[in-house]
Amino acid sequence: MKLRLFFMAMLFSASAVLAAMPRLTESGVEIDGGTMGKFIFSYPGFNTGGKTVKPEVRVDGGKAVLTYLTDRAPNIELILDGGRLRGSMKTAAEGKLIWDMFLPIMFGGKGEWAFGPDGKSGVFPKDQPPKPHLAQLHGSWFRFTDPQSAESIVITLDGKGFWQLQDNREWKWKIFQLILYTDVYPGCTQEFTLTFSSKQPEAVPVRVDRFGQPKNLDFPGKITDEAQLKADIAADCAYYGSLRPPETAPWGGMAGSRGKFNLKATGFFRLDKVQGRDVLVTPEGDLFFQLGVCTVCPGDDHTYIKGREQIYEWLPKYESEYKTAFRGHWATDFSFYLANRIRKTGRPYELDEWKREQIGRLRKWGFNSDGAFTAYTPVNAAAKYGRTPELFKKAGLVGDIGDPFNETFRRELDENFAPIAGFRDDPTIIGYFIANEQPYGDVARKVPGFDGKTAAKRELVKLLERKYGAIDRFNAAWGLKAANFDALNDLPLPVQTEAAWNDMQEYSRHFFDAYFGLVARTFRKYDPNHLLLGARFLPANISVEAAVEACGKYCDVFSINYYSRSIEPEFLEKIHRLSGKPLLLSEWSFGTAEQGLAGGVIDTRNQTERGHAYRSYVEEAAALPYVVGSQWFSYLDQALTGRYFQHYNGECMNIGLVNVADRPFKEFLHEAMKTNYRIYDLKLGAIEPFVWRAAGSAGNRTPKRLQIPRALPGHKVDGVKTPWPGRPSERLDGSCLVTGAETNGTGADFWLCWDEKNLYLYAEVVDSTPARNSRTGADLWQSDCIELFTGGESPDRSGPLLFSDRQLLISAAQPKGGSWFVNQPVQAGVQAVVIPNAGGYTLEAAIPWEALRIKPETGLSFRFDLGLDDSNDGPKRLRQFMWSGVANNSADRSNWGTATLVD
């Protein structure tokens, strides 16, 4: 059997020129969209049995080979010849190929989309819609159009696939996504051809005015004439001259605190305790709370202009008075912010002069130091203004996590750190960051699959041989059939038993202790004077407790990039407890879309609300005794057409204190100064913090408890609640909504009972579009579904899931959907009945205790939670409810409730 797929990507206009041919990259097929940018139509993931595996890609010129590390998966060979991509694959297992392409959020409110042959069409929404799915349908083509430039990309499939277009702001990601599902048939050869061609109009409308602002958007304070920029010099003098920050000690410390608290001056920033609270101390011995700002230097204000010059109303030549507004001599990255500064001052940009002015501004606003990603300049020393550089590392074993057991990595790390010896006596350095957002969870996932050429894999085998001694004992524990321990070096070692899972937890502790220990020892070899500020963890990686503990063991401060609508004291307390060190909130911010940018990582409605969010975040954090500072990201807004290094599809957010015209966001800063000016009263507990919550902020939830009665004689799973113990229901209502904008009237009542074999569930669900779920396997959660969470081991323990914890998905579209135990190699049978009705559906199920790894007995307590997933149409979830927990239930059991079995 052969399957042929024909894709054609074209750019249409009445008068057009040929655009660049597509090319193969490591990520997919790059399509040249002219002034719209370049787009990657990704190599497909392979989905079978509810699990999607991304391909391993090998590109050699015009040829790409895709392999999938799962049983019976196809191997795909792609050959690009001009604009034609031919592919073939031999298949064994049935499944689907899942292709996708991302479209920048900048097209919201103006970009148009359409599908054929039915002609369904629409406009990409400017604001986040109540439902994330813009289209879901079977069809043969997709078209994306920018009406401003009359450019379009068309992707055509010979035959029909299932297309999905969605707005990922529902999941806190500002981007649109196109997804295409195509079928893989078992035991056959399938061939497909993708043909890409593109045309661009000779002229396109201007999108960006000569000042780097949106051409067709008006807003208060928008620059329309160069004279306004020149007039800002006098206006700036008046504005900054009117600000009256409180007196501080040198380096921005608390005035008079050295004598008041008998603090020691060492010539370097250090840690201490004052009134039982962790504090930083300046080189001159004053109490210090870092109010830092990241990227106090031009950077993300530069945008990539090559190939889309037509969308800009004005661009200067490189050899001109605006030469310093370009980044590098290659003249492809241009900063309208710096161009406006040149217009304003009549002088070229020069880093030291610029930085001196910005430090003066920042101090007026109450900030006291540089955050991460800030260029070094001697101005900091003269101004006594602290900074926090990052240590340099090359690509490593997993991301930039190096292999601590590899001698080459150890030698290169030493070579990379040696230059910091030249700064060991520099008082401006508060401390060094090790890294930024490293993927710690990938170590335990990936190392077992490496071969014996990898030192980390050989180290794992050594630990296993030392523990088990005999290969038979290892095979029994891991469920494998290895001939000997030497053979393990080159064998993939799937982690599918509790013993294997526990071994990898032990290995993770060993690995991260070695890694962070090596980094710290090498650092202190060359610089014994400065603090080691941690590795700027992502919140999701706090569940890798071995990494948190090791980082805390060897670092002086634990740093976390903590984007959140509000401070969560319980979460930060957990990090402090695991790391044993003071915390630095090393990256966060809020933004708005008022001036045409894409808002922020976390949006507010206006600059005043942005200021309220800032105040609440900083003040609540400073009031915690173990938080020693924060770093706002960042000083400047990002460029309207995206930051330079991401080329055509870069981030373009309102994250700055000043905009592209060098004008400060005064409404925001008016609020921020209220907090910055009183930071030391907050830190020492002399005043209560300002607390503010935006609409949509999640409140703190206390884990719930329930009792489960014994089942009555004659219990049946038939969708009828007779006989059933006479207990009131537990409810899932709007207070339990953890994902989605609104409930849409959806909710549920549920009851539980038990006997020696099963846990029984009965749920009555209110749903205007009931029992719709076209998903299977591990994807059942994406549509109408009940989720059950249980943990029979260590019910008082919080944190990451234990090996014995279970997450069960029960489809509301019985019998096709069935059930699925997440991350379990063997699927146990679950008896379930679903009965749709006019207002929703009833779901009843019997779940074997054996599958939950729980031995039932009267009085037994175990961790428990129940979730409800809701979809309007079947393929995609719109909202999620949790009885006790949160949206992160599948990774962390801390918010699960507790259930107790009673007679």
UniProtKB/TrEMBL annotation:
Keyword Disulfide bond annotated: no
Task: Give one GO term, molecular function aspect.
Answer: carbohydrate binding
- GO terms under biological process: carbohydrate catabolic process
The cross-references to InterPro entries, in alphabetical order and at most eight, read: Carb-bd_dom_fam9, GH
Instruction: Give the signal sequence positions.
Output: 1-19
Tell me which residues make up the Carbohydrate-binding domain.
Answer: 736-902
Indicate whether 4Fe-4S appears among the record's keywords. Answer: no
Keyword vocabulary terms for this entry: Signal
Instruction: Write down what this protein is called.
Output: Carbohydrate-binding domain-containing protein
Species per Swiss-Prot/TrEMBL record: Victivallis vadensis
Q: What is the lineage of its organism?
A: Bacteria, Pseudomonadati, Lentisphaerota, Lentisphaeria, Victivallales
